[in-house]
Amino acid sequence: MAGEAMRRRARGRTGSAENLVRLVAHTDPVALVGISLSILLSVTLDLTNAATGVESLLAGLMGVTISLVLDSLARAERRFHLRTLLDGPPWLVRATPQVAGALREAAERHAGTRVAVEAQRRFEEFRRQAEQLAAGRIIRPGDDDEDLVGATRDCAREMVGLTNVMPRVSGELSWWRGDVGRRYWEANVAALARGVRITRVFVYATLSPELAELVEAQRRAGVRVGLLPIGAVSPHLHVNLAVWDGSSCWEGRMTAHGEISENEFSVHPADVERLTRVFRTCADAATFAG
Asked: Which UniProt keywords apply (predicted)?
């Protein structure tokens, strides 16, 4: 019985400590500092006889009251800001409480396990991707052509592109021969059929028969094709890019072996302006047939 009573008391103390931790965690730092200073002021006035006991108590209570009022105002501001954030598309309003609740449950119910660590990691990844979307950017793996092909299908007036063809062990034109390149070219052909003007510059190290054949095939299809030797421009212009209607763009981030490892689609004006400037610089230095 005594042991059980001691365990209950221990659990009670643990529960009290946890409640105190929760209270501190959910209290605004301004309120905590204000309350602490108010208590310190009251005790100091009383111990130094600078004020009577009643005056010291009133001074402390006044400080605590002001701190709590400030805390209440801060909480109200945060709640208003949260309501403003959730005043958006219906799918966002419905899903946000569910997502937040699931992550909190995972972190608290499985605290100290890999589940809690993974919950935090996934949340941080989601936050990073959300920030990219807010900036107008979508980043996908190198084999995901959804934005490259989709934006070409949506293009209404003009498309410009820059393709770097570098010698590789597996051949120069493997990207164009692969699934992504074929789908992209099919979208190009469809865009040409509906009247879209397409200009593409190939930056090359060697004008091989395979590259010459690809260039000729695109010219016959209606693409205005330019050729640019690799040494004619600065190395920082050796990028793969596309710009659609002057309003959206794509850049393929390449590995050291010349393989596209990451696709970045963007509608951010600075990105569109930067890639448009890169294309124009290369186009000015390129040679166009006819």
From this structure: Membrane, Transmembrane, Transmembrane helix
Give Cα 181 to chain centroid, integer Å: 26
Q: What is the pLDDT of residues 82-111, one digit of tens each?
A: 566 566 678 777 888 888 889 999 999 999
Distances (CA, A) of 189 to 149, 157, 185, 202, 230: 11, 14, 6, 18, 27
Better-scored residue on pLDDT, 280 or 257: 280
Instruction: Using pLDDT thresholds of 50, 70 and 90, give the confidence band for residue 147.
Output: very high
Give me the helices (H) in the chain, please. 2-25, 29-47, 53-85, 90-109, 114-134, 146-154, 174-177, 179-193, 209-221, 269-285
Tokens (6 digits) for 110: 């499985």
What CA–CA distance (Å, rounded) separates 269 from 136?
Answer: 9
Query: What integer is the mean pLDDT of 274-287?
Result: 96
98, with CB counted inside 10 A (0-12, 13-18, 19+), is exposed
Tokens 């006044």: give the residue. 62
- Predicted confidence band of residue 253 (pLDDT cuts 50, 70, 90): confident
- Residue with tokens 């005056």, as numbered in its chain: 55
Q: Which tens digit of pLDDT belongs to each residue from 153-168?
A: 999 999 999 998 876 5
For the beta carbon of residue 48, count every other beta carbon within 10 angstroms. Answer: 9
- Distance from CA of residue 282 to its chain's centroid? 30
State how far the Cα of 124 lies from the Cα of 12, in Å rounded to an integer: 35
Cα distances (angstroms) measured from residue 104 to each of 61, 119, 120, 160, 229: 36, 9, 10, 47, 56
What are the φ/ψ torsions at residue 234 (nearest 5 degrees)?
Answer: -65, 145
Domains, in order of start, for the chain: 2-134 (no CATH), 140-288 (3.30.870.10)
